Amino acid sequence: MVVAALCGIAKTALPGAATIAVALCTAVLPAKESTGAILLMLMTGDLLAVWSYRHDADFRMLRRLVPAVLAGVGAGALFLHLASDSSTRRLIGIVLLLLVAITLLQRRAAGRSRVPTRSPVPPMAPPASGASGAPEALEASAAPATGGRAARLVYGSLAGFTTMVANAGGPVTSMYFLACRYPVKAFLGTTAWFFFLVNLVKLPFSVSAGLVNATTLSLTGIAAPAVIASALAGRRLAERMDQRVFEPIIIALTIVSALPLLR
Length: 263
Known about the structure:
- This protein is mostly helical.
- It has one domain.
- The chain contains eleven helices and no strands.
- Helix 3 (31-52) packs across helix 10 (214-239) and helix 4 (59-82) packs across helix 7 (148-166).
- It is globular and about 50 Å long.
- It is a multi-pass membrane protein.
- Its main location: membrane.
């Protein structure tokens, strides 16, 4: 039930919690079997998440990520047929920690580059949470820090790969969307729709690889109420969360979720 609760809250409030659920699940199940069970729990949470944040996603960004994500999913499906459970976990843990380090360095460099000027014009205030769904606000917040096509290619392919092999794509996209400087609701809305669509694409690959079977379906049926309840609680939490608290929590969860995968 703890795993199910983490899957639910990951969908509506704290995306990094999903990878902690992956780590806990792999502690009691083989990595590949746990991947199927976690996928179905996350898809249950996806339905509530996309409804909750249906007006807050940056669909333009999602369209731009599609080619790289599809390539990553395909590479991940091939990797599942070739790699062992332990090598899969370690590779993903290393990738996540590298992404955290890169994101922190980028944010530090961006902070140093903002040199105060003597202009009498006051600095622009951060966007209000109620306007987070506006396309203009999303585009303006995302433009400076994403690194353009190269960043979309790297992060999109890594997100597709890690979500395919271990349902660990949440921290990858979290690092990318943090770099985009999205407000809380825009961050959660774009993340929700991203994984709703990606998990639909993953499902046939997971069935063919034997990750989704009668056992994982029965586990999901038992866990579904806990997923839904925690997703509803997460939505209330997100409505009250300040941006200055939200971003450090996402970074901390990414680090915490990566460490168990290195075993």
